[in-house]
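Take a record:
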Amino acid sequence: MFGLGSVFFRLLRKLLFLWVRTEVDGADKDSLQIDPDKPLIYVLQNGAISSRMVLEGALKKAGLPSSRLPLKLPGRSLKRSFFFTSAPQGPLFRKRYSPVIHDHLRQLVDAAENNPQLDVQIVPVSVFWGRSPDKEQSLFKLIMSDTWSVSGRIWQFFVILFHGRNTLIQFSPAISVQHLVNESASADIATRKVARVLRVHFRRVRQATLGPDLSHRRTMVSTLIRSAPVRQAIESTAQKEKITAAKARHKAFTYADEIASNVSMATIRFLDILLTWVWNKIYNGVKVNNIDAVKRAAQQGSVIYVPCHRSHVDYLLLSYVLFNNGLMVPHIAAGINLNMPIVGAVLRRGGAFFMRRSFKNNQLYATVFNEYMHSMLTKGYPVEYFVEGGRSRTGRTLEPKAGMLVMTAKSYLRDSRKPVVFVPVYVGYEKIIEARSYLGELKGKKKKKENILVLFKSLKKLRNSFGQVNVNFGAPFQLEDVLTEVQEDWRSDDYDIDSRPPWLPQAIALLSQKVAVGINNAAAINPVNMVATVLLTTPKLAMDERMLAEHCDKIITLLGQNPYSEQMTFPAGTGADWINYTQNMRLTTRQQQNLGDIISLEGSSAILLTYYRNNILHLLALPALVASMCQNNARMSRQKIVFLVKAIYPYIKSELFLRWETKDIVPVIDSWIETLCNNSLLIRGRDALHRPISGSREAVFLHALARIIIPTLERYYVAIAILRRSGSGSITAAELESRSTQMAERMSILHGLNAPEFFDKTLFRNFIQNLREERIIEVNEAGHITYDENMDRIGDDARLVLNAELRQSILQVAIDTEETKADEKEIKAA
């Protein structure tokens, strides 16, 4: 724009890069989706010389064609291979960037119009000098950050000065000019359409990277208090509590101030540096999968990240991964218990907003919090919350809590102009920092309350290695699609903050399932959970090293042939590698023997490894269920196997959040039968399926595969045995849950079962509820469970799956439990 020659440009670029440091994202040819045989041109949001310089540096670093080369078109040639969508306009010293249609764009469209075979590829490139969202009414808002509206060259100089060492250059997939021209009636319409597509694209990328324009916290809190729903709640609270309106307003302001985050890019950058050091200190790496799907989702609307909750590290890790992949860190819903001195302030500046565990009997707080959530979603802030409520102590995905999902859905019903996109996230650890405290809690110790001293004590763990971490992003899905599936014409009604349409509970139930299933779909298999899964199938928790390696490899082979989902991931290496790895992690022990080393679990490691086994239990539930049918039967018809697996599947699906609907499960069962047959684990006969010859490698593996799911089936049989022993109409659901829990705990002691979830009362509660939903049991007016002959049929079918010794043991414990209950009643009566 000053007639700069190539030499002068290169000199300026070298001077600029004495200060500027860039991070380039998406510049590889696969991500750009470019055809090397077609013309290529780059487009920037503005034509600032600084942006052109860093673009050229990024192209040189990535090995892509220079933007300063001429672009040859039929009958004409463009001087440079780039253009921009906005240019400075207005009086001198008051110029601002405004949308323009560049002459290069007109010529591109005209050339494509006249030459249908010509297809020029436009590659959008976004440049971010720092990544702080704009803060309205902030004195230094343009100096402190790259914002939505950089005003001019002087301000641009200060932005580069402050943030030049934290510059992100983000390339996006190429856009076909010919494709857009073919969709337009004329060259003029096509030109305007291409310009509009590029402006929308840059706006979406900027929102995904910087977040939406962010009001200053004090301004945001004040605006929240002035909203109509909060004003009404203030008036209602003043009348109900007989206090002045000023006091009620002050209380609302206190609530809003307690809740609201205070995002600070300075804090986020500090945490990025700190966490990079921490992760390198305690982890062998953080592996990220399916991030491209998240980047696309972030450009569609308001993103809700819904990760599983295994550790306090989860929210730090997810924010770190998103920030380092060019996405804005989310606003994270955190429990008020984490709002500790010092730590709470840091978390708040890192994006956390705090919520109380219960809103009960505090309508004012509930309204303020709901309005805060509504404000974030309608403005397009990325949000993160944990649908499980608390951290999973067993390693399983927990039943989702409806609270935050209801708030999100009700907010969207009030204002559905901006799409809401859910992104399930699976975070898989090879070792979790809280492992020992979880172990204590599972053994009955009281949960420790978070405080600053506990946090500092945990710093000593930085000396330990916790293996690798997988952050797997599941398939994004839109809230609109979930609502439409339940209520097709939901948009025809008007909704306010108090609206609760009758179909909403069904929609929330479906949304909960989609979130939990989406998390499990993205599960990561790692060496620890693989070795744990196999070793825990053995009675003595020990196995020959070679056999253990073979079993690990065989499971991976089966899942490779019949993957659970497209988002699941596999570990690198072989079973032998994983055994050595877990030993180095001090999770398994090796006993050297002349005939071959024995790998075993000792002490509390057995219980601890059930946690990691449970992370991937759902991946193997269906093949294990098929295998379990052949444990007590040398042969069984294919139809009978399918019938029994289908009958059990609804309960397994509900407990483990499996992805297939019951009505669609038969083809999946058939697929697994074929997979097992193709690997000689089941033998096709003329009229039945046979298990392998006893003692063969295949028979041993089939038994181990079945043992993965057998403890779950045993737990179901415990409840059924108590129910049949009690008789129809003699026991309530609460009593059945309590007795089943006690009986399972007794069995775990008597038979050395190492899985704490075996006597988890919530799993029994879920099973009893599923028996009701499947119409196996009913509850009469007196609250007692009634059943018919179907219950006897289920008991008889158990003989085909569980061996006689185990069934007899369960029945004996059930008898002992009933006699103990009877004795207690007699003692109380006496």
